[in-house]
Amino acid sequence: LQKLIHLLQATDDPLIQEQALITLSNSAAFSVNQDIIRNLDGLSVIGGMLSDCVPKVKEKALNALNNLSMNIKNQEEIQVYITQVCRNVESAPLNSDLQLAGLRLLTNMSVTSDYHHKMINSIPCFLHLLSEGNERIQIQVLKVLVNLSANPAMTRHLLRAQV
Q: Which of 114, 123, 115 has its CA nearest to residue 89?
């Protein structure tokens, strides 16, 4: 895991980055590896890939963070990327794998109300995707909206959102 994280930092080759991110994502399916990756500063390395200009690299980084977000301590570190993930979802091509990967991460990050406030500005985007997206996007958006709606503090924001 340490070598994969170092490889991500050391290379600019998108194909190598993708493969390293896929491997880290698969490794994160095991809870013991989630802690190891966090302790090796892997979350910030993977999070840094969200600003990459190659959509496939961003998508694989989102998938890795999604798997890593099953851990409360990891969520505390991943939450700094929520605004950027929301921007990626908004700017990604409609119905793209990149958009879906971002929504999956936002679903996990919205299970508790701790980070809902970071998603407020994206509510109009979520409602637009609910209207315009394909079935996979709609289902994922609904999961995010259900999580947000469970928080009474979000009611006003959800009802006042401009669509």
A: 123
Q: Are 18 and 9 in contact (CB under 8 A)?
A: no
Exposure string for 127-137, b = 16+ CB within 10 A, e = fewer: bbbbeebeeeb
Residue 69 belongs to domain with CATH number: 1.25.10.10
User: By residue range, what is the domain housing residue 88?
Assistant: 80-162
Interatomic CA distance for residues 30 and 24, integer angstroms: 10
- Report residue 163's pLDDT band, with 50, 70 and 90 as the boundaries: confident
Nearest-CA neighbor of 82 among 60, 98, 66, 100? 66
Q: What is the pTM of this model?
A: 0.95
State the average pLDDT over residues 130-138: 97
The whole-number pLDDT of residue 162 equals: 82
**What distance in Å separates the CA atoms of residue 147 and residue 155, rounded to the nearest whole number?**
11
